[in-house]
């Protein structure tokens, strides 16, 4: 694969991730009370839920800025990979009853999706990012 093709693929993955994070931000902030309610239904303490209501969109916005800022886009890719892996781990733990109950799978960019579908979507993005990082670092 030549450098031009790698660059096109790299930029394509960047824009897919920007789209993912912008949609996530919009979903979380569009109905903040719904987001708050969904966060409170998770397994962590209420005070953590209150922090996450605002922290998740802020982190997604920060990652989006990194992805769009040229030289820092590689850092944005790595941050995206980390966030998707952490969220996937949370899903896997929830699906395997590590919390004593399955927290709701609400607030997703997949409005009618379940944990399995969210995990599949995350897996696709994790794979894309991993391949992109591997190819980018080997240019």
Q: Could you explain how this protein is built, in words?
A:
The chain is mainly α and 139 residues long. Helix content is 76%, strand content 0%. It has helices at 3-30, 32-40, 46-68, 73-95, 115-137.
Explain the layout of strands and helices.
Layout: H1 3-30, H2 32-40, H3 46-68, H4 73-95, H5 115-137
Helix pairs in contact: 1-3, 1-5, 2-3, 3-4, 4-5
Helix-strand pattern: HHHHH
What amount of the residues lies in strands?
under 5%
Low-confidence stretches: none
Relative helix content: over 70%
Taking all residues together, what is the mean pLDDT? Answer: 87
Assembly type: single chain
Structural class, from secondary structure content?
mainly alpha
Biggest sheet, open or closed, and with what strands and sense? none
Shape: globular
Essential attributes:
globular, 139 residues, mainly alpha
Brief rundown of the structure:
This protein is mainly α and 139 residues long. It has five helices and no strands. 76% of the residues lie in helices and 0% in strands.
């Amino acid at each position: 694969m030549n450098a031009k093709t790698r660059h096109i693929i790299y930029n394509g993955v960047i824009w897919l991730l920007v789209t993912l994070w912008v949609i996530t931000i919009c979903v979380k902030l569009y109905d903040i009370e719904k987001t708050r309610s969904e966060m409170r239904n998770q397994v962590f303490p209420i005070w953590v839920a209150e922090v996450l209501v605002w922290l998740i969109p802020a982190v997604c916005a920060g990652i989006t800025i990194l992805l769009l800022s040229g030289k820092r886009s590689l850092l944005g890719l790595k941050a995206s990979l980390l966030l998707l892996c952490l969220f996937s781990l949370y899903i896997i733990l929830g699906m395997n009853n590590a919390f004593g109950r399955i927290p709701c799978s609400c607030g997703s960019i997949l409005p009618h999706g379940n944990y399995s579908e969210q995990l599949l979507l995350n897996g696709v993005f994790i794979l894309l990012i991993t391949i992109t990082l591997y190819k980018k670092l080997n240019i």
